[in-house]
Amino acid sequence: MDQPGHGNGSVTSGEALHQADSLRDQGMWDAAALAYRGFLEQRPEDWRVRVQMGHCLKEAGDIAAALAAYREAADAAPNSADAHLHIGHALKMMGEGEGAWRAYARALELEPDNVEASRGAKSLAFLASSVLRHARAPGQALQLVFDSSDLVAYVAHNRTPTGIQRVQLNVTARALLDPIEGVATAAVAFDEASGFWREISRDLFLRLWRLSRTGGEVDAPAWVEVVEELRETLRDGSDFVFAAGSTLVNLGTSWWIKDYFLRVRHVMRRYGVRYVPLIYDCIPLVAPEHCQPLLSEEFAQWFSSMAAQAESALAISEWSAADAQRIAGEILPERALSVAVVRLDADLRQELGVSASEGWPSRPDLPEPQEKFVLCVGTIESRKNHLMLFHAWLALIRRHGAARVPRLVCIGKAGWLADAAMTLWRNSPVLQERVSIAHGVPDVALAGLYGQAMFTVTNSFYEGWGLPVTESLSFGRIPLVARNTSLTEAGGEAAVYFEPENLPDLVAKLEQLIFDEAERTRLEAVIRDTVSLRSWGAIADQVMRVIAGRHGDAEAVAAPPVRLELSTIYPLRLTGGGDAERSKAMADIIRDGLAWHPLESWGCWTRHGLAKLRLPIDPAMAGGPMRLYLSCLAPAGGSWVRVRAFGANAVPEPYRRIVLEAEGGGRFACVLDFDSAGDEVIVEIDGCEGTAIDVRDGSAGRLVGLGVSALMLCRPDDLRARIDFLERHAYRALRPDR
């Protein structure tokens, strides 16, 4: 029953609906939508009116708002074919064909005789198949999808961004706010529970970006709210629908996500997605002594797989680009990695504007506004070499007295192998007096520190760029920098350099900048006259233009696939170690589809259902009889699985059944002979209903089919290769320690 209105001029819900219908009938779409919205404030459960509001919004040209209204109607009436039908229409108008097909299919599921839904589904029927689609339609915007997975993981426990998060936040925010012509942008994060990406709305991402810059308190209500909304988005959101021919841009890290590249390959094959990572550095490969062993192993696996699959890559410096291309060339010489350099020469002062002048932090671990100090920004870890910097401060204090030596202000939380530096600091009262260590300083407060510092100092052993050097220049402050790696790119001609690991040279340069005010003034003038930095918006534009240019380059030649060599044993497991290797790449990329559990140190389980291996071979070697060897592991309690192998251009061979021993745990080798027509060999492993393993403490465990730990392709008459595989399978091969 309609409820009476309250207050002067109020109307009943029935009157409001009549007014809205009248405006709709007159074609006054905006006014009608507004009137329907007013009605829904009184009767939010009326899903049919939400559909009508959606119609008006669609006629007014706001398809996105119409889609939101239709989806709200479907949420209120999930069994309404009409709501799903109109979701399909809206998605089709927005160019989201697969999502439209799914909506039409749902409408037909609810109402099989719905002619309009049947017509819509038939027009998009090709999207229901698993056929690979590469090309975008003529005139269709290029979709750039920014993967923010590690950013979401980071902000769950931190608010103040470090270098990588700063880049992600600023570039993605600018790309969402102002995409270049011909490009549509979106932000997503990978949800490990569902195994797919979920979209982060533009509004949500921009709120996260703004809040990360203006405070450091992780328990602030606004920050807690936005982080919880992120969690809900990942938990409850729908799988992101990639447009055909889109690009997944990975500005952060993903080596910690299990089977990330398995999912990337899935969308590459299904939607023609291209994968483009941003490479910050190759430090875990070239300077592993400064990294956690697990990080080095995960990075080595990620880099190996990336080099085999990336359409192209971005790098933040010429140094990082050269490292990446050199290492990729060593492990995959047949597949040159194309790397474009996007320098991180961002102007932090321009980005923050006048608010920086109001950002002086009032904290006991930071200097007073008029105090003289030298600023050092960066995580306290062995690679940043704070230990040598602290020794330099001790040398200055002993030579000149504590009163004449300015305070050293270190901004950064303790990281990997910080113990040596922190132990020295804790054991020295004079260092504790003249060296401050603080973290959780937001950008606005950091800008205030940059603006008041005498100069800055950066003493890393190895960097991918050196963002604090650029930030120092943006505030007109002299950066004193170790002359190594990419730091010379970040500092250019305006920085002052000291020789790496040379304590006397560092102390001498510190003395010059501390005590020679005239020289400091001269060097600051050089910065004003010669340094030209960019906005984060300009950097985001370059990222988008480089990727779009690659798509539009008709002469660009796609990198060849990484192919298996015959008579070579390939492990299908995590091989460990901190070196990038061809075998690491192969273990990852030959698994095709989603019916695989993550790689483990012993091998890899298939999931229940049909798992595939896709084995590219040299076309010159294709044709004729071929033999496949699989080193397998049976799950305990398993009954049987089916396996077959065939050339991609051949008629599939019949399945061979493998009866598994009930006790499981036994290793065995499978041998399959087949015709190798085509330049790929397809292996199908049907795990059927699967077998539950790891069942304990009431958990359901995992459903697995068959364990696979190694494979080899060879000709049937290659007796040496056959014996080698069987001996390695039967015996424990002893290898020298790495």
Question: Measured on Cα atoms, how large is the radius of gyration?
Answer: 30 Å
Number of helices: 27
* Text of the CATH class of the largest domain: Alpha Beta
Please describe the biggest sheet, giving its number of strands, its sense, and whether it closes into a barrel: 7 strands, mixed
- CA distance, first residue to last residue: 79 Å
Helix content: 40-55%
Beta strand count = 24
Form type: globular
Q: Report the uncertain regions.
A: 1-9, 128-134
Mean pLDDT: 89
Which second-level CATH architecture of the largest domain applies?
3-Layer(aba) Sandwich
**Structure classification:** alpha/beta
Keywords: TPR repeat
Protein name: Glycosyl transferase family 1 domain-containing protein
TPR repeats: 47-80, 81-114
InterPro entries: Glyco_trans_1, TPR-like_helical_dom_sf, TPR_rpt
